[in-house]
Every structure is written in structure tokens, then in C-alpha cells.
Design a protein that fits this description.
Layout lengths: L2 H9 L6 H17 L4 E6 L2 E8 L8 E7 L13 E3 L2 E3 L3 H23 L8 E7 L11 H7 L7 E4 L7 E5 L1 E10 L3 E2 L9 H13 L15 E9 L5 E2 L2 E10 L5 H9 L4 E9 L2 E2 L5 H11 L8 E4 L5 H6 L4 E4 L3 E2 L7 E3 H34 L1
Parallel strand pairs: 3-6, 3-7, 7-17, 8-16
Antiparallel strand pairs: 1-2, 2-6, 4-5, 5-19, 8-15, 8-17, 9-13, 9-14, 10-12, 11-13, 18-19
């Protein structure tokens, strides 16, 4: 039951491709079943979503959701061969988030074993969901949203295992991704002064967006939004001045900002046309939520220097749970380099993460009772 070895097995699947996702999904399902945990898969846009649960079947029993994703962004060929180096395990997805997923799988088994022996981890139901599309650009068609809306994911609290350095992400920025067309005037490449180069203007538009009023706003956990030029495409021939250039801007806005106002500011830039917008709201849960407190205490029992409540720069599938009234946080292991060529996860943090999840499940019944009491007091007020 080694979370490091399981991480290495998962890294070996190129889950930036549909075939790799199906193969990895089959492996995870087989691993669960070989360890005595019933699992089923649900099709979402031709890809498998895995569901499993352990603990009491009573619908009134306290319940939590472990949410993980098996997909990764594309990587170099060598990144799908895991490479250990001391406490670091290198490879695509080790940090985001196959290491966290492996530890979640092991923690689920630990809870099942403890529950079978009559231990405290068996007093709460734990539902595991493994999705294939967290990294997808189709933010309005993700499987997590569909499953929550269909009632297939239910619980008092949800943990999505994105890497957080063993800190608890109680907030995540919202997403506003825009595909823009920047217009210019074409001319022969030998006389560029007779045209208006849309490709050059596009870069100026990005720099202008970086200085708009919204870019200087902050919140209690964030000093500013993040703005990234992620794609640029323009020009029809090498000997022409391009009269049109399309760019994609990825804005992660902070809680309290209104995406409509950000769009208004962008649309006010001359010669810019907004072609497509993808939007996702920020994720926010109270630091004083009883489940957050229980998770923080559980992490603290595994050692020093973790369990802080923080804001996360990236967007999160936790929003799907929050939108359905289920408090949710990001919580995952330590490492660095996600989406980069030297991605790695701390092997020691995987073991600590696994332990913290089990410690948390043991505390879930008390946290659920406190949450119900808090809800009654709020209703009376």
C-alpha cells in the first residue's frame, strides 16, 4: 500500500490523451476492486469518471467527498517515466495531481480497513470521484459540475486534492478567459509602414489589459488578479502585414471583482473585438467552517508547518460543490513545477497527506454535528 509506487504507476499513463485517460481509468478501477472497494465508471463525453465509496450506507450518515483528477497537461516523452531523486519524485502529474490521487486512493483503503475493524474512520462515508477533465478548456462542460448537478456527488464537505503544500485552500480565484480579435490594416510585407500590423497591436493590447483598473484591485487573500497571454495567432502569408490577430487572455480574478466590469474595460480598448468568453466564479469557504477546522487540526496532528488556510491562484473544481451548497476546499501534497518540464512531488508529503486524510475522516462525525448546530443557530437568528 505504498502511495509512492502507486504514483509512479499513474505517471506512466499519458493522460493528456483520451486513450491514456481510458487506460488509466481502467487501472484505477482495477486497483480499487483488487483492494476490496467496489467502483463504477460513468461516461462523460466519451471519457470515464470513476466513483467509489466506503463507510456506512445510511443516507443520514456524515459524508465527505474526495475529489481527484487523473488528466494532465501535455508533457515531454520522458516525463511519463517517473524519476526518483531523494525525496523528490519527478514526472508529469506527480504534483498536479497523480501524487495526491494516489494518496487519496490509499487513504480510502485505510478508512475502509479501519471501518471494517470497527474503528472511528468507519463512522463516516467517504465518496471518491476521479475525473478525466479537470485540465480541460471546456470549463462549462466539466464532469464534476455534471455529477454534482445530477446528485451523484453528495456530502457534507468536499476535498479536491490539488497540490497546496499541505495547506488548506479556502479560496480560489475565478476564471475569465477571453478570445479577442485585434484588427489592423494589411499591406505588402516590403512596405509595412503602409499597413497597421495587427500582431504587433495584439501584444500592445495585452500590455494595455495589464494596466486596466481591475488589474490593481486586491482582496483579503490576494494582492492582485493574474493575467496571462496564453495564445496568439495572426497572419496569412510571410510577405503580408497581418490585418487580424487573435489572442487568448487568461484572467484569474479575485473574490469581489465582477467579470462583467472586467469585460467592459477590455471592450473599451480600440480595435478589439471579444469573440468568446469562458467564465467561472471564485471558490470561497469560511475559515471557521467546522470541517475546515477539523481538517486543519488533522493536518496539525501529522507534524509541524502545515494546515494554514490560504488563497489559491488557480481556479478550482471546488466551485461545483460550493454552487450546490457543499463546502469544499483544495488540499494536497507538497512539490513544485506543475505544468512545467521539472514537475515533482515530495514523497514524504504524500505519506503525510494520506495520514491527514484519514485523521480528518475520523473527525468528520463531530464536525458534521457542529455544522448542523451552527446551521440551526443561523436559522433561529
Amino acid at each position: 500500500m505504498d502511495e509512492r509506487v502507486l504514483t509512479e504507476r499513474l505517471v506512466g499513463y499519458d493522460t493528456s490523451t483520451p486513450d491514456g485517460l481510458r487506460a488509466a481509468g481502467g487501472f484505477v478501477k482495477g486497483w480499487l476492486e483488487s483492494h476490496g472497494i467496489d467502483a463504477r465508471d460513468v461516461d462523460h463525453d466519451g471519457l470515464p469518471v470513476l466513483l467509489a465509496s466506503v463507510g456506512p450506507t445510511d443516507p443520514d450518515a456524515p459524508a465527505v467527498v474526495f475529489h481527484g483528477h487523473v488528466d494532465v497537461v501535455p508533457g515531454l516523452e520522458g516525463q511519463f517515466t517517473p524519476r526518483p531523486d531523494g525525496d523528490r519524485l519527478y514526472g508529469r502529474g506527480t504534483y498536479d495531481m497523480k501524487g495526491g490521487l494516489a494518496a487519496m486512493l490509499c487513504a480510502l483503503h485505510d478508512c475502509a480497513q479501519e471501518g471494517a475493524a470497527g474503528g472511528p474512520a468507519g463512522r463516516a462515508r467517504v465518496q471518491l470521484v476521479v475525473v478525466p477533465d479537470e485540465e480541460s478548456e471546456q470549463v462549462n462542460r466539466r464532469s464534476t459540475d455534471a455529477l454534482v448537478k445530477a446528485g451523484l456527488l453528495r456530502g457534507d464537505f468536499a476535498i479536491t486534492g490539488e497540490p497546496t503544500e499541505l495547506q488548506i485552500g479556502v479560496q480560489a480565484k475565478g476564471v475569465l478567459a477571453m478570445r479577442l480579435a485585434v484588427h489592423g490594416v494589411s499591406a505588402h510585407g516590403s512596405t509595412p509602414w503602409l499597413g497597421d500590423n495587427a500582431a504587433l497591436k495584439a501584444f500592445d493590447v495585452f500590455r494595455r489589459i495589464e494596466t486596466l483598473p481591475f488589474s490593481r484591485q486586491s482582496s483579503d487573500l490576494y494582492d492582485r488578479p493574474s493575467i496571462n497571454l496564453s495564445r496568439i495567432h495572426g497572419g496569412d502569408a510571410f510577405n503580408m502585414v497581418p490585418d487580424r490577430c487573435e489572442i487568448t487572455i487568461d484572467i484569474r480574478f479575485v473574490p469581489g471583482q465582477e467579470p462583467e466590469e472586467i469585460l467592459r474595460q477590455v471592450r473599451a480598448i480600440p480595435d478589439v473585438e471579444v469573440l468568446k468568453v469562458l467564465e467561472r466564479a471564485p471558490a470561497i469557504v469560511s475559515r471557521s467552517n467546522p470541517f475546515v477546522v477539523a481538517l486543519r487540526d488533522a493536518v496539525g496532528r501529522t507534524g509541524e508547518g502545515a494546515g494554514l488556510t490560504v488563497g489559491r491562484d488557480g481556479a478550482s473544481d471546488a466551485f461545483a460543490f460550493l454552487e450546490a451548497g457543499i463546502p469544499a476546499v483544495e488540499f494536497g501534497p507538497s512539490g513544485n513545477g506543475h505544468h512545467g518540464p521539472e514537475e515533482w512531488v515530495s514523497v514524504a508529503s504524500l505519506a503525510r497527506y494520506r495520514q491527514a486524510l484519514v485523521e480528518f475522516v475520523r473527525a468528520v462525525p463531530e464536525a458534521a454535528a457542529q455544522a448542523r448546530a451552527d446551521a440551526r443557530l443561523q436559522g433561529e437568528a
